UniProtKB/TrEMBL annotation:
EC main group: hydrolase
Main function: May nick specific sequences that contain T:G mispairs resulting from m5C-deamination.
The EC number(s) this enzyme carries: 3.1.-.-
Keywords assigned by UniProt, alphabetized: DNA damage, DNA repair, Endonuclease, Hydrolase, Nuclease
Stated name of the protein: Very short patch repair endonuclease
Transmembrane feature ranges: none
Length: 134
């Protein structure tokens, strides 16, 4: 049983953004501080990656642990209501993520996924970005 009515739940879910999220902004700040310049959300690439480094032919996705089902993460919890709907939705998201990574690799792009829970450790993000882009 949900603790809010359908109208209120709809308003809450409508406020969830797909671009310019706090984790994405944090990763962008770190990449910029490291001296890397990038493009945002190129629609001509599969999955419209969050950060695109065209000269290096590399992309970075910043995934929310809940929506993209980060394995073993406490933020990827299972909803208690409407379970069948959410399982279907999560399965579609994960399948799409896999397909996008394969498509980008086939086109010659190197990919990196940074998870929302990893963003709390800016040193980890900086080292992963440097290793990916260096």
């Amino acid at each position: 049983m949900d603790i809010v009515d359908k109208h209120e739940r709809s308003k809450l879910m409508g406020r969830i953004r797909g671009k310019d999220t706090k984790p994405e902004l944090a990763v962008r700040r770190i990449a910029h501080r490291l001296g890397y310049r990038f493009r945002l959300h190129r629609k001509d690439l599969p999955g419209s990656p969050d950060l695109v480094f065209p000269r290096r032919c590399k992309v970075v996705f910043v995934h929310g642990c809940y929506w993209h089902r980060h394995q073993g993460c406490r933020l990827a919890y299972q909803p208690k209501s409407n379970v069948e709907f959410w399982n279907r939705k999560f399965a579609v998201n994960v399948a799409r993520d896999r397909r996008v990574l394969v498509d980008l690799t086939d086109q010659g792009w190197k990919t990196l996924v940074i998870w929302e829970c990893e963003v709390k450790d800016s040193d980890l993000v900086a080292s992963r970005l440097s290793a990916h882009l260096g």
